[in-house]
Amino acid sequence: MIHRFKKNTVYGGETLFGGCGCLDRNKITILKRTKGWLVYREQYCNRIFKMKRGYASGWGDCLITRFDEFHAYCTEPTIQPF
Fold it and tell me: What span, in angstroms and rounded, lies between the C-alpha atoms of 51 and 36?
């Protein structure tokens, strides 16, 4: 199944980070999906970014940011958009 990023959905990254016994993953919220572009907000940064949407063969949409890699199948359903 090919996955696509959806508006107002939180996605978790692939890199684990943390300290003091706490591990977490980077997260983004997709604000807008247009032809070839994604507009998103990072979890720990109060800025909005626009980046070209990538594609992982056999998996679907992907987004490679300056700190992590996000795939459309890595949703975080229990987390509200930020």
Answer: 9
